[in-house]
Design a protein that fits this description.
Structural class: alpha/beta
Distance between the termini: 37 Å
Number of strands: 17
Radius of gyration: 24 Å
Strand content: 5-15%
Strand order of the largest sheet: 2-1-3-14-4
Helix content: 25-40%
Number of helices: 23
Shape: globular
């Protein structure tokens, strides 16, 4: 067994018995901030208590905390600040355009995939000369200031967005996989005798055999392989070819691991090979045409029904569907990621925590009180407040044992799997939409309650324990190859903000539209017309100035590597 896997197994054993030391990654940047003091030892003052309400628009589709939520009320009591959330309904770019043209901006905003549009239209204030005035914000981002700053263009060296994910503290022990992968239901693997498929053919053979054997699941038709191609989530449709040749997720390009030169993969022979395989699976009945016309909610509903055998997706993207399966104790219908590649390649689906930069929330030019907003963000980065947001209220939502370790009762665990209960009782969205501490707190408790060693062990079903025992695994992440080194400085390209109105943006938008429109047509084309459909797709791609996009990406990679 590889050294990395032995290490993970040892870590997990230590975690489950609750004796793992907190540890730090490599240097001081991974120490969590003290709960009451800034890095100099000065007591951190709470924000002014005068009541104020900040409006917050998020380009994500989610649900605001319910009125009367005790955690939200507690934070409001501590800070005097009320956050009035508005989450996206409908088309993101249409919504953003309406806000910009009408000059009707919220105080705070997470622009999600429309961040280029927002920044090019001057939606956000520059925070580069303000961060240093707020000790917790400064400490939180100090190791990554270069990544927060724009690398080029008119925004060069300015900071408009504060990243809200992947600022990780402590040792990285991935107990779950939230990134990209080819996913398969545990029931499929169990029925086949617990194999580990590694090639495309092995993967699809398992799905075909199971679907033929079990044409229905819980009285509904079994769905073999789903392809989400809706809106910006069409990465499920577009991204597989780069992973099949052993590359990590760089969005629309692959980057040479030696020269750091980016190139397209959508027009390659290996991409054609992948889509030809999907065409074959469509004609064998494993893929339905409906998958290409469904929206995101319909996709999640199918997963929550337990009848989707497999898909390519990011783990975080379908987690809401899995949560329903967990609530209903359909553990065999949940998923594991597989190391699927073309023959001759090693999978690169697992990433160490990577701070992207420029991918989070900002303060708009119409914010009613910028200083107060920054004070609120700074105060919420105190450990005690972070624990309130991520765990809830001590004695109500969790308890503390004699060693200072947090734990939940069985009733509390059941509640924490119910999204409706979470909206009414926990600080889920206050935690998700603002800068946060991820990883391990300074006292050894995990930031994510579900990954606390004792909780992870207590909430895993007997089915899952037996399932993993059949592989000799302790974690589902052991299906994948662990990275042996940190990601390069440029990574990942998908996090770059393409300048709005630029030739590069025009090119990538046209390429995305082409892929979203024509790839489904190629997949469902008559088998004897596949080559002609692919040639038509290539001809249309040649009319796009993709070189403008590549030139911009490569200039950005160079700037980041330097």
């Amino acid at each position: 067994m590889k050294k990395s896997k032995i290490l993970i197994l040892l870590l997990v054993v230590c975690l489950v018995v609750g004796i793992m030391a907190t540890g730090c990654k490599k240097d001081e940047v991974d120490k969590t901030p003290d709960s009451t003091k800034d890095p100099t030892g000065k007591e951190t003052e709470a924000p002014k208590k005068d009541p104020i309400t900040f409006t917050y628009f998020s380009g994500d589709q989610n649900q605001a905390p319910a009125e009367g939520n005790p955690v939200v009320e507690k934070v409001r009591e501590l800070t005097g600040v009320t956050i009035e959330f508005e989450f996206l309904v409908g088309d993101l770019f249409e919504k953003m355009g309406t806000m910009i043209s009408g000059q009707d901006l919220p105080d705070l905003m997470n622009p999600s995939q429309a961040r280029a549009l927002a920044m090019e239209n001057g939606v956000f204030i520059d925070l580069s000369d303000k961060i240093g005035n707020y000790p917790n914000i400064k400490s939180h981002y100090e190791p990554y200031m270069d990544r927060l700053r724009a690398a080029s263009g008119e925004s060069k060296d300015k900071i408009y967005l504060l990243d809200i994910w992947d600022r990780y503290y402590g040792d990285w022990t991935p107990v779950e996989h939230g990134g990209p992968g080819f996913w398969i239901q545990k029931a499929v693997l169990a029925d086949a005798g617990y194999p580990i498929p590694k090639t495309v053919d092995e993967y699809f053979d398992l799905l075909l055999n199971y679907k033929e054997k079990y044409p229905e699941i819980d009285g509904q038709p079994t769905l073999g392989y789903e392809v989400l191609s809706y809106d910006w989530r069409s990465f499920c449709l577009k991204n597989p070819p780069q992973h099949l040749i052993g590359h990590p997720n760089d969005g629309d390009v692959v980057v040479d691991k030696e020269t750091y030169e980016a190139s397209l993969y959508q027009n390659t022979d290996y991409a054609k090979k992948w889509y030809k395989k999907l065409n074959e699976m469509y004609h064998k009945g494993l893929i339905s045409a409906e998958t290409f016309t469904q929206d995101y909610d319909a996709y999640l509903q199918k997963i929550s029904q337990g009848r989707v055998l497999g898909m390519f997706d990011q783990g975080w993207n379908f987690q809401d569907g899995v949560n329903v399966l967990l609530q209903e104790e359909k553990y065999d219908r949940t998923y594991v990621p597989l190391p699927i590649t073309f023959e001759g390649y090693t999978d690169s689906y697992m990433d160490p925590p990577t701070f992207v930069g420029g991918n989070g929330m900002g303060i708009t030019t119409q914010c009613k009180d910028v200083e107060r907003a920054l004070e609120y963000i700074d105060y919420c980065l105190n450990e005690d407040v972070q624990k309130l947001l991520s765990w809830g209220i001590e004695g109500e939502h969790y308890h503390v044992d004699e060693n200072g370790m947090f734990y939940r009762t069985e009733e509390q665990r059941v509640n924490a799997r119910d999204q409706d209960w979470i909206n009414k009782n926990l600080g889920d969205q206050l935690y998700a939409q603002f800068p946060k501490i991820q990883g391990i707190y300074s006292d050894g408790n995990w930031c994510d309650a579900n990954q606390q060693p004792s909780e992870f062990a207590a909430t895993r079903s007997e089915f899952d324990n037996e399932f993993l025992d059949n592989y000799g695994f302790k974690l589902v992440t052991e299906f994948l190859t662990m990275p042996t080194e940190e990601s390069p400085a440029y990574y990942p390209v998908w996090g770059y903000t393409v300048p709005d109105g630029s030739d590069a943006q025009t090119a990538i938008n046209e390429l995305t539209d082409l892929e979203n429109t024509y790839l489904p047509r190629i997949i469902i084309a008559d088998e004897d017309k596949f080559d002609a459909a692919w040639d038509d797709y290539m001809a249309r791609m040649e009319k796009i100035n993709t070189q403008a996009y590549l030139d911009w990406v490569n200039s950005e990679i160079k700037a980041r590597m330097e």
